[in-house]
Amino acid sequence: MTETGDRGAFLANARARLGGGIHRNPVHVPPQATAVPPEVRFTALDRDDLVGSFVAMASGVDAVVARVRPDDVGQEVVGLARSYGVASVVRSAEADLDRVAIALVEAGLAVDPYDPAVGAAADLGLTGAVAGIAATGSLVLDASVAGSRAAGLLPPVHVCVLPEDRIVATPADVLHPLSVGPPSSLVLVGGPSRTGDVEQILTLGVHGPRHVHVVLVGPPA
Amino acid sequence: MVTCVVDLLEPEVGEATVRVLRAAGCEVTVSLGQTCCGQPAWNAGHAAEAAQVARTTLAALEAELADGAEVVVVPSGSCTSMVRVFWPELFDLVDDPDAVERARRVGARTVEVSEFLTDRDLPALTGPATRVAYHHSCHMLRELGLRAEPEGVVDRVDGAERVGWEGDDRCCGFGGLFSVKLPEVSVAMADEKLIALADAGPDVVVGCDASCLAQLRTRSESVGLPVRTRHLAQFLDDALP
Amino acid sequence: MEGTLRGRTAAAVADTELHGRVTAAVDRFVAKRTEGLAGLEDADGLRRAARAVKADVLARLPDLLEQFADRVLADGGHVCWAPTAADASRYVTDVAAAAGGRVVKSKSMAAEEIGLNDTLAAAGCEVVETDLGEWVIQLAGETPSHIIIPALHRDRHTIKDVLVAEAGADPAELEASPEAITRFARAALRPRFLDADVGVTGANFAVAETGSIVLVTNEGNGRLATSLPRVHVVVLGMERLVADWAQLDLMINLLARSASGQPLSSYTSITTGPRRPGEADGPDELHVVILDNGRSDLLAGEFHEMLGCIRCGACLNVCPVFRQTGGHAYGWVYSGPMGAVLTPLLAEGGGDLSDASTLCGACMDACPVQIPLQDLLLALRRDREKGVGGRAAWAAWATAWSSPRGYRTSTAAGRWGAGLSPLARRWSADRTPLQPVRRPFHTRWKAGDV
Questions:
Q1: Interface residue A37 vs chain B (CB under 8 A)
Q2: Domain C7-296 is classified in which CATH homologous superfamily?
Q3: What angle do CA C275, C279, C283 make, to 5 degrees?
Q4: Confidence band (pLDDT; 50, 70, 90) for B65?
């Protein structure tokens, strides 16, 4: 697309500055520059129990996690919707949400595919996730898979259906593969939206959801 | 190395240091050629002036070391930092590579008092049961990395009970000229330390920098709730047989 | 910048309510940071590595910027190279006006730096800040007092006052509680997101390898601003690049834990290009404004490492001076130790901010990329003194004190000289006097009394 301003001059200026060598602090001497960082390792991560680590970390950021068998996912989500008095649900596009959507409709709720207006009016946002991150308790939302960015962001309640076998260990496991080409939007979500702007008192549900539920789908019985 | 602060404002700290070092079995010499390490000018951004003064002290310490002294002991964490950590940069900035080398050699033989005493025998140190609040001065803690050393030395005094207090390693607000450039902030910083001290209720505040102790002491006196301070050297000296 | 540093800091110190709020906030952040970093193995090793990575990025910055820009363009985005604040503001304003003029902003320090909101407003655009704290200070016409909590200087009551006065809140209905205030903000701002033509954000990081923009946020406004409006404009400080995903991984882990102790922020959003065909939201148009505004002047020189700052706020939280004054006393959008260094380098004025420090070093110990802030503050003092009087006094001091005899003579009087008396008076205004003694140590030693 378009380029404004003078790239050549902008970069030539920076190159000229760097041309003469870079000052090194003589007292608190910097280490040698390195392009390749070490691996980030997490003290609370149990690599032999990624699901357990994920549940602990996600709960720690105020997401509510339930582990269910595949056949019970629909009822779990229906139960959540009822508990919040939900009438309307907006869903993202993943095919693996279809069964849940059907269960919700059968339970008398309106379920509509996402667009911004629908999302803004819905009581609950239903999405999948391409991964969960055990070390941080994060959900990974990919717009190229979900077909949108804000289905789980606009409504006050976000329910995310995540198969357990998509839980990976660390953020690096999600980020490194992006070299081959990231989607238009990838979000690592840690629990509900929050702020400490008023007297540093943690308050949930600012512009995003107040409640985040993760329905972890285990292997078939 | 006496330091100008001890020399001119708190000579008793110097006297106590000498006595303690002698009690540790050392022969103590003091070069009358030393003046100041240059830190006041260095921190004010005047490197040339700082170097001018620092050179004099460098030469004096060099002479002592050449004359048989094995180590330079300093009753101040900030002055020790100046010599060991900042002198090479200072002399480099004023384009004196020869002094850089000499400073490195002297710096390698320069230690702060508690650092020196940590591995040395002292006679039995006893005192009355005393609750001691130890104040960690900034350069000593963050430039020299000395935390356990002064605490350990205090603990060697029988009767001393170190009490924890909130913010014990936070800056007291002296900062050299900062204390008079932004006096309101400086005093507010001291006040917060004094409130934490009041909560802990020690009998004495001990530290390794006389300037920090003076900041806390003089403010506490000014508000009518005086706090007793002793430099570590004095605290040990008090406990010598 | 109004008044003098001493005047502003003295006024701040006198505000005991402010002090209470600041200390409560920073103490909490410090505790959180400690807890957060304990979640990483060898956190100090990672900080050291982050310093080394930033050194790599800065050394290769022109190439990385080129790679980044090419990727943005290839993905259908627009790039603006903005050497000055005015270049950046003008471009953003042109884009915003052409798109319809209704702008929602997610917090951007770089945008504050260039005074973007004023330029947009002057061009007839409606700009609303959407970060809760930023919205409050925008309504109140104030500047931020902390990087992470911009409205730190206001409690729930004064926040409510602002909402009543400026946002149409009904004083009888709006409870002065964090929950109620938050609900009010959500309701008030949601329509703005839905109606906006343009979302303007900053960028915490930009990934050169793929032309991606990374936003680290908690409230959700950053995501909404980059999902709903048709146009997304990013104000990107040129130094905020990382080369690739491994470097980003290191940085986002350190940033979140250093800033607030969270393993990651609530939302780490990574956007690459505009929306793709078939996607139901996301911008159609993406503009990335690459901002210099004095940053390139710092490259390779004495202040080079300051470009490594990731704006986490950890240095503010540990600074014993910031603790007493809060952020407004620093006079600009950046405060605390990083503000004391950046302000004189990027803005007009602020040359005396390096005096707002005792050089205690706590900031360096807290910085996730190990910027030698203490040394940079001292370097600023040296730079300032080059152009200013006061040299004569130090020269006289040096002449006297560079000989033992001069030292002894000049200090023999047992009192401060005329030159130092004003300073001595400043000391003893609120502290008992410190007097030079009549018999210094060297006299006692010489006399054989020791």
A1: no
A2: NagB/RpiA/CoA transferase-like (3.40.50.10420)
A3: 30
A4: very high
Domain count, chain B: 2
Q: Compute the nearest-CA separation of B106 from chain C (Å).
A: 18
Give pLDDT, residue C202.
Answer: 98
The reply to whether B49 touches chain C by the CB within 8 Å rule is: yes
- Please judge whether A186 and C269 are an interchain contact, meaning their C-beta atoms are less than 8 angstroms apart: yes
Q: What residues 149-178 of chain B have any CB closer than 8 A to a CB of chain C?
A: 170-171, 173-178
Strands of B158-162's sheet in order across? B158-162, B126-135, B204-207, B229-231
Residue at a domain's end among B68, B84, B117:
B117
* Closest to B179 (Cα-Cα) out of B125, B140, B231, B219: B219
**Nearest by CB to C358, which of B45, B138, B221?**
B138
Taking phi over 0 as left and psi of -120 to 50 as alpha, with beta for the rest, A68 belongs to beta
CATH of the domain at B179: 3.40.50
Does B238 touch chain C if contact means CB atoms closer than 8 Å? no
Kindly report, residue by residue over B176-222, the tens digit of the pLDDT. 999 999 999 999 999 999 999 999 999 999 999 999 999 999 999 99
Taking the C-alpha atoms of residue C356 and residue C8, their distance in angstroms, rounded to an integer, is 11
Task: Tell me how far apart the alpha carbons of residues B174 and A35 are, in angstroms, rounded to a whole number.
Answer: 41
Phi/psi at A67 (5° precision): -100, 125
Q: Does C389 have pLDDT greater than 70?
A: no
When pLDDT is averaged across residues C306-332 and rounded to a whole number, the result is 97
With both helix axes pointing from N to C terminus, report the angle between C61-74 and C43-59 in degrees, rounded to the nearest 10: 80
Q: Distance (Å, rounded) from C-alpha C136 to C-alpha C128?
A: 10
Q: Which amino acid is at C396?
A: A
Alpha-carbon torsion (C400, C403, C404, C405), positive or negative: negative
Cβ atoms of C350 and C344 within 8 Å: the answer is yes
CB contact under 8 A, B184 and C9: yes
For C402, the token pair is 């560079």
A213 pairs with which residues across the strands?
A: A64, A159
Q: Which two tokens stand for residue C434?
A: 């410190």
Residues 6+ away with beta carbon under 8 Å from C416 = C423, C424, C435, C436
The full set of domains in chain A, from first to last, is 45-217 (3.40.50.10420)
Query: What does each C-alpha distance from B139 to A25, C13, C181, C349, C446 come to in angstroms?
Result: 18, 25, 44, 29, 30
